[in-house]
Amino acid sequence: MFQISSQELITLVATFIWPFSRILGLFSSAPLLSQNSFPVTTRIGLAIAMTILIMPDMSLTVTKDPLSMDGLLILINQFLIGISIGFVMRVIFAAIEMAGELIGVSMGLGFATFYNPQTQGQTIVISQFLSLLALAIFLSTNLHLVMLESFFDSFKTIPINQISLAPVAFRDLAYWGSNIFSIGLQLSLPIVTTLLIANIALGILTKAAPQLNLFGIGFPITIGVGFLMLSINMPYWSSPIINSLDMGIQMIRQATATLAT
């Protein structure tokens, strides 16, 4: 008759529930996986499948009861690690969305907003377009697989039963969030600068000919110039977007190494 001891049962539960918590943390913050359009049942089922696949490779020595205070702290830590790794890639997409916000406002399309299921809020249409473009590049270049590979490598660099994490890692993640502004500004700067020149030219034209209706000719010109610059810059955006996503992958590896120290 098959028998299992209480210690073996505790080890089995801990070997499943702690990695499962880290994977759920990733799924709650990573691009695409955290979208509301991704069904919750599918998300949980995929997390369970991933956990079962990596369980044989887990050389986990369970010395704490999963239901004890230390076990619950480990569970929370695993969830925070998963959220942190997903947050790194989410920063890149937020930066690209910010570039779309700057471009849309400069074009006069600040009123053209609709519900974005990824951010769960109103988003300018240009911002949503750039976000979908970045997501297409993210998937077509297999960077989502690289992100998952870096995530699963974190199980080797950060032990599952480690309770304390380096506070400096969370500080580095906060600093990493500042890249939203720098990357967003770099991507939008050519179009925003062109629209600024167009607005200055319209101001000079209106000053020279006051009878012209600025609101009548200003919006069509700025919107037309904006779309023209979007079509010109589109072929050149793939390289900086890929570089930004690669930077996010490197930051994931750096963050996992820092969390382990």
TrEMBL record:
Cleaved signal peptide residues: none
Record has Transmembrane as a keyword: yes
Main location: membrane
GO biological process: bacterial-type flagellum assembly; protein targeting
Transmembrane segments: 9-28, 40-60, 72-93, 129-147, 180-202, 214-237
Cellular localisation: Cell membrane; Bacterial flagellum basal body
Keyword annotations from UniProtKB, A to Z: Bacterial flagellum, Cell membrane, Cell projection, Cilium, Flagellum, Membrane, Transmembrane, Transmembrane helix
Cellular component terms (Gene Ontology): bacterial-type flagellum basal body; plasma membrane
InterPro entries in UniProt: FliR, T3SS_IM_R
Domain of life where this protein originates: Bacteria
UniProt topology in membrane: Multi-pass membrane protein
Keyword Protein biosynthesis: no
NCBIfam families: fliR
Family: Belongs to the FliR/MopE/SpaR family.
Function statement: Role in flagellar biosynthesis.
Protein name: Flagellar biosynthetic protein FliR
